[in-house]
Amino acid sequence: MQAASGRDAPDRCPGAVQVHEAADGGLARVRLPGGRLTAAQLLVLRSAAAELGDPVLELTSRGNVQVRALRPGAATELAARLDDAGLLPSATHERVRNIIASPLGGPATRRLVEEFDALLCATPELAALPGRFLATVDDGRGDVTPLGGDVGLHGSRLVLAGRPAGRDGGAKLLVEAALAFLAERAAQDSRAWRLSELDDGPARVAARLGTQVTAPPVERCDPPAAGAHGAAAVLVVPLGLLTGEQSAALANAAEEIIVTPWRTVVVPAAAVDEAVAAGLVADPTSPWAGVTACAGRPGCAKALADVRADARSAVAAGEREPGALPVHWAGCERRCGAPRGRHVEMVATPTGYRSAVA
């Protein structure tokens, strides 16, 4: 039986070991389960980027970090540095450690992410998960459940492709659900990358877990806005590009940062002034809030425009009103890195940009 997704090859999602060759050199994606990154680890990434490739770190829509423009042969050195820093706990599972968590979640959320990550890496069969497979750990506020995870927990309730199911549990249940996805994929003779690509995927995986999907998808909650949130603060990283100066400022001001799926970072409130002085944004009304872009030219061979430069020009010209819909600039029809939910897309075409609400 042909997979409903029509996939005819394994996914080639980049990792820290399996580096993608982009137009500007090697591209490595470093998974950060729950987005957590210590100051020491951030400095390792900063120095590796400066010495091995492009000194600017890229934040992704899954709360990970990318190092791009790696010179030939630099991937091996990068992997060694990541391993020493504790950022590469499993070479076999490093591409499948895709875990997004509520960035303002408390210690219980953190422990759950750590436990699931450890179990994931300790389960040999789960190395076969596609690099696009995503787990979400939502503390119940509804910020990350709607982001399109394949398996997840909303509070303690199991979620399958965004649909709540009739089981409660923790990290072990997420492992069971991931294994059930692989079993159902094999039963369908499929190469699907995502649970939703399987025929009746959520319902059939739920049945393998002795339950059923029980409700419509969880309602979307807006991501945490820039600014203070109690003892923590959310900072916008313009276009998700963290410069060496900004990385150094964050590492100097905070023992740990959290990279979010919205290309923001969460830091202690006391770290805000130093980070803002380095160019990060704490003002929720800033025109940078909600503006994202793919790599564009010259980094991507498929791109038809330098979308980052064009996005900067649009922000500088004041073309976006505070409170307007998020805007994503895309270099081609693939729309890489586009946000979930309603947004304006600026898609480069051979004759200019096409604007539409997605």
UniProtKB/TrEMBL annotation:
InterPro entries for this protein: NIR_SIR_4Fe-4S (IPR051329), NiRdtase/SiRdtase_haem-b_fer (IPR005117), Nit/Sulf_reduc_fer-like_dom_sf (IPR036136), NO2/SO3_Rdtase_4Fe4S_sf (IPR045854)
Native species: Dactylosporangium darangshiense
This protein's name: Precorrin-3B synthase
Pfam families: NIR_SIR_ferr (PF03460)
Key word Ribonucleoprotein present: no
Domain Nitrite/Sulfite reductase ferredoxin-like: 24-84
Keyword presence, 4Fe-4S: yes
Keywords attached to this entry: 4Fe-4S, Heme, Iron, Iron-sulfur, Metal-binding, Oxidoreductase
Database matches in PANTHER family: BLR3264 PROTEIN, FERREDOXIN--NITRITE REDUCTASE, CHLOROPLASTIC
